[in-house]
Design brief:
Blueprint: E1 2-6, E2 10-17, E3 29-36, H1 38-48, E4 52-56, E5 58-59, H2 63-74, E6 83-84, E7 92-97, E8 103-109, H3 118-125, E9 133-137, H4 142-151, E10 156-159, H5 167-175, E11 181-187, H6 188-193, E12 200-206, E13 211-216, E14 219-224, H7 236-246, H8 253-268, H9 278-284
Parallel strand pairs: 1-4, 1-9, 2-7, 5-6, 9-10, 10-11, 11-12
Antiparallel strand pairs: 2-3, 7-8, 12-13, 13-14
Length: 286
């Protein structure tokens, strides 16, 4: 498929303790720098799975931004329409993980994504040609999400990103004319925030280590997570979303959920937020 992904691209700084995290103390552990951002991670996974990906974002005008842009090039993601954000606009995410790989908390500075405006999108979308699917994350402004709902001509997928940013999707749907969305991916917290929102054809609600729920119409179907040895859970939701998208718009919810869960399992068993062996390991996963 030819897929256009729109949203955040940042540097991930991941700190993982060697033993159980002790609050208000310095914890021995490891600190790693890797390319990240919900939309960028989704784009990276899709490219690794063999899809043709056009990415639309603004990279920070600093060493982190250059690092992130280069990671996209190396991953085979088309970034020729991307721009550099104004000076001082940041795009960075810091997470602290416990020794079992579960995230204790994180801080995101995503001001570069604020410049993905409807006007910017209009100019870029006129240049990308035909695509099969559009994907966006809630790092971008509300008006831009609403613009996409009303102006793209292919199925649209949204990722809620976080509890703080999920309400943008509700507002975007309310102020749009079409008021409809093909797929929403969220976690339990985000799902509760958006539980009363209508116009979404299919919702994939991540339950973390337990699996996912898929809501389609009045039907809720549970799919358990695959057994795995978690190393780093950061990026698992992005891999889940990439697998759901990679399944294709005609796939059943069962098929899309199965592929998404396989990609998530592969990711949490890797120290990085994207497992570069996702396609190879996906093909080996029963």
């Amino acid at each position: 498929m030819r897929i256009c992904v729109i949203g955040g691209a940042n540097a991930d700084i991941t700190a993982t303790t060697l033993q159980t995290f002790v609050p208000e103390d310095s914890n021995p552990g490891t600190v790693r720098l890797s390319p990240g951002g919900v939309a960028r991670n989704i784009a990276h996974n899709l490219s690794l799975l063999g899809d043709e990906v056009i990415f639309l974002t603004l990279f920070a005008d600093d060493a982190f931004g250059r690092f992130t842009a280069e990671s996209c090039r190396q991953a085979g993601i088309d970034i020729h329409l991307c721009d550099t954000a104004p000076a001082k606009a940041q795009s960075c995410f810091l997470s602290i993980n416990d020794s079992d790989g579960e995230m204790i908390g994180g801080v995101s500075d995503m001001t570069a994504a604020d410049y993905i405006t409807p006007e910017w999108l209009s100019a870029k979308l006129s240049l990308i040609g035909k695509v099969d699917v559009f994907v966006a994350d809630a790092n971008i402004p509300v008006d831009s999400l609403s613009y996409l709902i009303d102006n793209v001509d292919a199925p649209l997928y949204f990722d809620a990103v976080s509890g703080a940013k999920a309400p943008k999707i509700q507002v975007a749907l309310e102020q749009s004319e079409k008021k409809s969305l093909f797929v929403l991916k969220c976690n339990q917290l985000e799902g509760e925030i958006l539980s009363q929102v209508s116009g979404i054809s299919r919702r994939y609600v991540s339950l973390g280590a337990d699996g996912i729920e898929v809501v389609e119409g009045n039907t809720v179907t549970f799919f358990p997570a695959l057994p795995c040895q978690a190393v780093n859970t950061t990026g698992a939701g992005d891999a889940l979303m990439a697998g759901i998208i990679h399944a294709g718009t005609t796939a059943s919810m069962e098929e899309a959920a199965r592929i998404g869960l396989r990609c998530a399992k592969i990711t949490v068993e890797c120290i990085d937020t994207v497992n570069n062996k996702v396609k190879e390991l996906y093909e080996q996963t029963p």
